[in-house]
Amino acid sequence: MNPNPDILLINSYAPRQRVVSDAALENSLVILRTFLAHKGLYAEIVDDQRVSTLENGVPGWCLQLLKAATKLLMKTYRLKPVAGSLLIAAWPLHAYALNCRREYMRNRIRSIVADLKARNIPMVGLKLWYGEAYTWSRELAAEIKRHCPETVIVAGGPQVKVYGDIVLCNSDFDLAIMGPGEEILEKLITLRRQTLYKEIFLEKVVETLGGRLLKTGGFAGDSQDVIRGLATQTIPDYGDADFDDKILFHTIVDGVGCSWNNCNFCSHTRCTVPFTPRPVEDIITEIKAMLQRGVAFFRFSSSETPVEHGRKIAEAILAHGLNIRYSMFVRATKVTEETLAAYRIMIQAGLRAVFMGGETGHDGVNRDIMNKGVEKKDIVNTIAAIRLASDSIGISCRIGLSLIYPCPLPAGITLDEVFQANLALIDESLPDTVIVNPPGPFPETKWYKEADKFGFTFSEGAATFTQNFMEYEYSIYKPVEFWQDLGSSLHNMESKAVLKETGKLRAYAAGIGIPTDISDEYLMMTEAIGLRSKLDLVKFKQQTLIDIISGSTDYTREITAAINAASRRMAAAYTNK
Questions:
Q1: Which residues pair with 293 in a beta bridge?
Q2: What pLDDT sits at residue 330?
Q3: Could you tell me the CA-to-CA distances from 31 to 185, 191, 238, 524 in Å, in that order?
Q4: Checking CA distances to 271, which of 110, 158, 172, 428 falls within 20 to 30 Å?
Q5: In whole angstroms, what is the distance from residue 55 CA to residue 446 CA?
Q6: CB 61 within 8 A of CB 515
Q7: If 0-12 CB within 10 Å is exposed, 13-18 middle and 19+ buried, where does residue 60 land?
Q8: Is 355 helix (H, G, I), strand (E, B) or coil?
Q9: Beta-strand relationship, 255-256 and 276-277
Q10: Residue 182 has what pLDDT?
Q11: 219 CA to centre of own chain
């Protein structure tokens, strides 16, 4: 029988599905549990972010009606009066379903808090996500503090990496970890075991560790610590419960940081250590461990996998005869014969999708506003090189191109000029999907610290804007009229006008047959299950959109079953050798 846990690790989640990969294997919490177990400490995981649980709390009849209404809306969306009437007619259903989901999630909070109290669990670790998932985490923390005042609440995850100590403002989180959490959690749990009262424990943490925001790894600026951490990276020990109702793709740490790390808009710059590769032999060991568990789909986690490091990984995959598929983030580069050769090897090794941040097709904007370090020709040439490498060996590798629009403007440049430059970039590169994001001035970026220079204004000040931004539920599928005002503007464009302009570029891509906003891991996995043509991707996008808007998971469950079956088949080819 297991003892009471030293820490309960909780994955936050939102009332509705936001992207199809929400229910991927939860690698980071399992890494923490595995690491702590090796140190003789016991952690349990609460992870409600699973495929079919997104329907929990909503009556089946309501979901089916919403699905039917959504299908009808998608057929008539170009007929504005008809679409508007359908939207208004379906709105009470949407409101009812959302209210049901929120009540279900409030009940989950009560259940989690009751368990904490009954078992007197001394510490909780919350993995924070954005928007309504962050709101749910704050509500959970408030209930924990109310009913379990001696339980220490530690926040971590993507939201802390983006917002830092701001997550500690107007919340009941006691501590926040910015960076890898394994070693610092071990220290905290050990100290908590030695300290009777929470107040004294927190005083000791501030005294010995320097404050309530605990920076680790690249966020602490310690390059030697990053190198050591990558050399001893924990391989997650997934149990059967971790696989239940999950999509079988695993996020694997291939390195930390970015080789450029100077973009004005990018929150990744808070990691101050330049790209540091993880030893290739350790990556191969982890891939083999996952194959043993039936997982053959992988996504590399670093902000950018440099071409040379990607080539070394690919050569090792081929040398070990591993049958896998993977995706990764790439940076546009000056293309050489070596670039082309490297991509050939990576595609042969299983690379089936890349995600590239292009940001804009306007060189002046990329230089003066983005500080991207690349020009339009680099973006076009890199995409062309990947295509050429793919064609030369007869194996597909899909490309996702990310753009930021609208954006701050240099002196003398108009928004229409940027729009036209973006159209030219899309037309010349013809990516498999285009991801268009509105501009976001994230804390500690140049866009945030020099907001006036870049044309951003905050009606109630930067601090209030940031608090709103953290809980803002960004979903591209909601009509602009239903968005809340964010309290910000760009060159006198209010937030709703900004979102409308974003939709204009997205609509252009869709209008020429390029599906929008499909993540790189789904570009990779859909290819593996036979959805290979552009029309297949368009249909995939339409079907997943129905699920996301209606709250149903019918298609998501269907596609998950196909992906998981393919993953197990590929993994079996290795394990049965």
A1: none
A2: 96
A3: 12, 21, 9, 24
A4: 172
A5: 40
A6: no
A7: exposed
A8: strand
A9: antiparallel
A10: 97
A11: 18
Q: How many Cα neighbours within 13 Å face the side chain of 522? A: 22
**405, 419 Cβ separation under 8 angstroms:** yes
Find where tokens 């049965």 sit: 576
243 and 25 Cβ atoms separated by less than 8 Å: yes
CA distance linking residue 309 with residue 124, whole number of Å:
37
> Can you tell me the distance from the alpha carbon of 475 to that of 22, in angstroms, rounded to the nearest whole number?
13
Q: Which residue positions in the chain have pLDDT lower than 50?
A: 1
Which two tokens mark 214?
A: 């605990």
pLDDT score recorded for residue 1: 46
Give pTM, 2 decimals. Answer: 0.94
pLDDT tens-digit series, residues 337-352: 999 999 999 999 999 9
Per-residue pLDDT at 18: 78
Nearest one of 520, 556, 478 to 94, comparing CA atoms: 478
Question: Alpha-carbon distance 268 to 249, whole Å?
Answer: 23
Q: What is the average pLDDT score of the chain? A: 94
3-state secondary structure of 300: strand
Residue 450 CA to residue 455 CA, distance in Å, equals: 9
Q: Across 322-441, where does the E strand assignment appear?
A: 325-330, 351-359, 398-404, 433-437
Tens digit of pLDDT for each residue in 194-207? 999 999 999 999 99
Cross-strand partners of 294 = none
Helix residue spans in 394-461 (DSSP H): 415-429, 446-449
What are the structure tokens assigned to 375, written together? 């020009």
Cβ-count burial of 131 within 10 angstroms (0-12 exposed, 13-18 middle, 19+ buried)?
A: buried
State the amino acid at position 318 in one-letter form.
L
Is 478 within 8 Å of 300 (Cβ atoms)? no
Give 8-30 as a 3 state SS string: EEEECCCCCCCCHHHHECCHHHH
* Cα 401 to chain centroid, rounded: 16
Nearest CA to 255 among 191, 195, 198, 308?
308
Tell how many helices (H) and how many strands (E) occur in the chain: 21, 17
Q: Is 438 in contact with 404 (CB distance < 8 Å)?
A: yes
Q: Which amino acid is at 130?
A: Y
